[in-house]
């Protein structure tokens, strides 16, 4: 397929996926669509279903005969509970659900990679095996506090994988630029729920109650001070209160208020310190006559890019675009469940410049999210080149 035709096909895949987004753990039609595109390709075997990859949704397309090295390529396939506002002709057909994080693009790039790798296999030019993981549920944990990557890892489907690569579209930098950093690149993700309990009462007689709304107003400044006053300025950290609920009437003081939020850190030291200080500060509530319950959940660990795998990705992108500008900077305090994979398998994720020239103000997780679709072909070739470079070196044991 000629270069222009490949770009058109990648855009076609991406736009179909964009029109029919599905939330985490619900990606049944997305899974079926992926399988239809790659089924029957030379050298490609397909794994899907809970007994094979740990979840009902998602796909692993293995290209090759099992020959080592075994390289992993990963794309996430789920969407977000966001109502789209792009007014694109291929806008989401599902009200309140949108691909606002580029997962439609990631999936299209990996489908393209399967095609390229299959053609190499058919020509006897694939000297190794590539497992292409179309992973569900990156965005959201289930009731057991797990995301898709954890289920796939626990299934054993990636046990033979020696190294793994992923790309993430970045609407904040243009085509021709990437972010690629060894070491910590994204944050630990922790969530908290604080239930502040009082006694409630009549709004006209506050002296007869312990008011949990009043107690909340006193504790909020402490919560906001934790990153800036209880954690070193040299340790990146964020605490955001994202939800406060309590009360049902304008003249009744409620008996409890619930505060929910998130904490983000890069190091385990900062993560543990922030968690301890959160619990410590809440003791103020008891001194004022109230009580509290704290539920703290440790989610994704920080994304740590293996230096050798970063080197491979750097070489791969330069083979695709010799003039690429590589920014060796952290990707921010967002979370990414690819971190579960890199915790067990040497790997790296690159942020691929894809700023939309017509909408420079948009960003990830926004209703206006969009990206420059020229990034699709760049990403596809980069994934393939990274796998081939590692095969040429003989895998992890052969060095990079």
TrEMBL record:
The Mn(2+) ion enhances activity. SUPFAM superfamilies: Bacterial exopeptidase dimerisation domain (SSF55031), Zn-dependent exopeptidases (SSF53187). Its cofactor is Mn(2+). It comes from the Bacteria. GO terms for molecular function: hydrolase activity; metal ion binding. Keywords: Manganese, Metal-binding. Residues 188-282 form the Peptidase M20 dimerisation domain. The keyword tRNA-binding does not apply. Gene3D superfamilies: 3.30.70.360, Zn peptidases (3.40.630.10). Mn(2+) binds at residues 101, 103, 139, 168, 365. NCBIfam families: amidohydrolases. This is M20 family metallopeptidase. It comes from Halalkalibacter alkaliphilus.
